[in-house]
Amino acid sequence: MKVVCFAHAGAGVSAFHRWPELVGPGVDVVPWLLPGRDRRRREPRVVGREGLLRELRGVADAVGGQPYALYGHSLGGLVAYTLARAAAETGLRSAPALLAVGALPPPDGVAALVGGAELSDGELVGLLTRFGAVPEGVRAGDVWHRSVLPVLRDDLRLAAALKGAAGGPVDVPLLAVAGREDPLGGPEAVAGWGRWTTARFVRRTVPGGHFFVREAALPRLVGRAARVVARCAR
Questions:
Q1: pLDDT for 171-197, tens place per residue?
Q2: For residue 198, how many other CB atoms are within 10 A of its CB?
């Protein structure tokens, strides 16, 4: 089974570089790079639902008509949820066999950073710093401010648009994962995803803060879940 993965705001796909060796057998990791970053940095960034769905039409080719799962981390969770709701609009033959989200309250939950898209640079950096989302040692005008902050700001705009356009629960098994020390999408906040599926809902907690996507526990958990739903699909 292929697992298509979407990263957190401001990121490319580097957070998933260890996943292929950690998810275990029978699972093929497909990190999805959104435009406006890394090798796609010259392409216009996506800031709305319709533009996102046009971008995600390529997922159909990537999964090739086979059963597939989606994982999204933080902002990526909203991307994965949106794709699961609108799979047919993007040319996919079926809904995912599994929707997994991490470090993210549900669309009707409180998202502390989403409203920060229109803040000044100084205010936005201050807000991000409070939640540990700014690397140590960055200074105004440096490479991080020039290359990452604009991407992060547009990703927050996309998050706000996707929250506003959320259409209701999916009929897909849903796995919601929280970091035990995550100030943005902790265990209580993530539990709200149970209202957003009419199928089976499972909630798990792993060690770490908001960026536990880089640790080993999450890909192993997603790999096990993908193998379970693959057996059910067969």
A1: 999 999 999 999 999 999 999 999 999
A2: 12
Please determine, for residue 4, whether its predicted confidence score (pLDDT) is greater than 90.
yes
Give the whole-angstrom CA distance, residue 209 versus residue 132: 9
Q: Is 98 exposed, middle or buried (0-12, 13-18, 19+ CB in 10 A)?
A: buried
Residue from 74, 166, 70, 152 nearest 117 by CA: 152
Residue length of the chain: 234
Do residues 9 and 152 touch, judged by C-beta distance below 8 A? yes
Distance separating alpha carbons of residues 3 and 154, to the nearest angstrom: 25
Higher pLDDT, 72 or 143: 72
63/93 Cα distance (integer angstroms): 10
Q: Is the pLDDT at 145 greater than 80, yes or no?
A: yes
Q: What is the average pLDDT value for the chain, to the nearest integer?
A: 95
* Sheet strands (E) in 74-229: 98-102, 174-179, 201-206
Cβ neighbour number for residue 144 with a 10 Å cutoff: 17
